[in-house]
Specification:
Elements lengths: L1 E10 L2 E7 L4 E5 L6 H13 L13 H4 L10 E8 L2 E8 L6 E6 L4 E3 L4 H6 L5 H5 L3 E2 L7 H14 L10 H71 L11 H27 L3 H98 L2 H46 L6 E4 L5 E4 L4 E3 L5 H19 L7 E4 L7 H13 L4 E5 L3 H11 L2
Parallel strand pairs: 3-13, 8-12, 12-13
Antiparallel strand pairs: 1-2, 1-4, 4-5, 5-6, 6-7, 9-10, 10-11
Helix pairs in contact: 5-9, 5-10, 6-8, 6-9, 7-8, 9-10, 11-12
Amino acid sequence: MEILEIQMKHFGRFTDQEMSFHSGVNVIYGENETGKSTVHAFFRAMLYGLEKTRGRMSKKDEYLLRQPWEHSSRFEGVMRFQVRGKRYRLYRNFAKQEREVRLYCETDGKELDPDGTTLSALLGGLDEAAFRNTVYVGQRASETDENLASTIRNFLINCRSAGTPEVDLKKALEQLNQEKKNLEGEKKRHMADRIGKLQELRMRMDYTRQELKALYDEEEICRDRLKQLAEKSRREQEEEVGFQERSYGGEKQGVAWKAGEITMAVLASGAMAAALISERWEIRALACGLILLSCLGVMFFGKKDRAYKEEKREWERQYEEQRLYEELKQRERSLRRQEQEAPVRQKLSANLEWIRNAQQEKENLLESLEDQCRSEEETDEEGKELEEKLSGIYLAIDTMKGVAEEICEELSDRLNRRVSRIISEITDGRYERIILDEKMTVKIHTPDRVLDLEQVSRGTMEQIYFALRMASAELLSPGESLPVLLDDAFGFYDDVRLERTMRWLLGCGRQVILFTCQKREEELLEKIYTGG
C-alpha cells in the first residue's frame, strides 16, 4: 500500500488541509504544537475508524481529542492510496450521529462494499491492534515496552503457519472455550429440561390414567342406572294385575241341551222306523205318540240350545270388550312409565356415549404420552448432538493448543531470524542475534554473553523494539506492505543509530511517513542521497 494524498476536511485543528505523499521516505517537519500528531492520528482514524470511548478510558478518548476545533458538527476526511497498481479513495465521516464509510476504486470506477471487508483485505488483514504495534509508531512508544512484547507474543500465537492473521488462534481458543462453556450450560439446561419434560409427561400420564379410571367408574354407574331402570320396569310390569283369562260357565248346560235335542231326534227317528215296520196299530199308535213327544222334545231342547248360544255370544262379546279395555289401560300405564323414564334413559345414554368418546380420547392421549415418554427415554437426539458438539469442541481445543504451540515455535524462529537481521543491519553488525524465549522475553546474544533488554542502552532498546515492530509487520502482513508511520519515534537515537535506521527504511521497500520536530532526519536523508 502507498498513501497518495489526504484531505483533512474537518479533523482536529485542521480544516480543508491537503497533503500529498510519494513512495519511499516522506519527512514532515514541524515544531512542537503544530499538529504533527494530529496528522499522524488521522492516518489511523482513516484506516480503522474513530470510536468514542466510554467508561474510565473516556478521559483519554481519541474521538474527543480529534474533534474539529471549528464546525464540530462536521468531522470528516478523505484518503487516496494505491494497492497493487489500483487507486482507491476512502471517505469517512467520524461524527457519532452521521458515521459513514465509503470506499471507491478510482481505477475500476466502482464503489466497493462499505462494511470494511474489502478495506481489511487491502490492509493485508492487519487489524488495528496489530497496526498500532507494528508500522504505526507514535510518540513515547517506549512507554509500552512490556505491552509491546506481550502484543508481539499474542501476534505470534494468533497467526497461522503461513504468517497471515487469517485465523486468530488465541481468539479462536477463547471462542472455543466460550462455546464449550455455552454448550456445557446448554447441556445442563437440556438435561434439566429433559428431566422436567419426562416428569411432566409422567405426571400427565398419571393424571390421564386417573381420568380414565374416573370415566370407567362413571360408565359403570351409568350402565348400572340403565340396568336398574330396566329391572324396575320389568318388576312393575310383572306386578301389574293383568286381565284374568276365564271361560264361559254354562258350557255343561249347553252340552246337556244339545244332547237332549239329539236324543229326542234319535228317539223320533227310531219311533218312525218302528211305525213304518210294524203292522200292528197299537205299536204304530205308540210310535206316533213317541214321535210327537220326540218332536216336542226336539223343539224344547233346540230352543234351550239356541238360548244358550245367544247367551254365550253375549258373554263372549262382553268378555272381549273387558279384555280390550284392560289391555288399553295396561298399555297406557306402560306408555306413562316409558314417558317418565325416557328423559332419564336418554340422559344416561347420552352421558354413556360422551363417556365412551372421552374414554377413546383419553386412551389415545395416554398412548401418545407413553410413546413420547418411551421416545424421550430411549432417544435423545439433541443430547447426542450436544455431546458430539462438546466432543468436537474438546478435540478442537486440544488440537488448537497443540497447533498454537507449533505455530508459536515456528513463527518465533522466523521472527527471531528477521529481527536479528534487521538489528544487525541498523547496528552495523554489533548485535547479530535476538532471541524471543517462550515467554516472549527479549534476549540479546553477543559473542561474550546473553543480555536482557534492561542491560542495554535506551537507544539500543529502542532499536530492538523498532526491529521487532518491522519484523512483526512483515510476518503479519506478508502479502501487503503497509506504510510505516513514525511520529517522533527516534528521540533516543544518536546520529549514527539514526543514519543506519534511515538507510534501512530507504531499503525496506515500504513507504515511510516520518513526522519530526528536528531537522536531522532531513539532513541525514540528503546526505544519504547525495552520497555525502
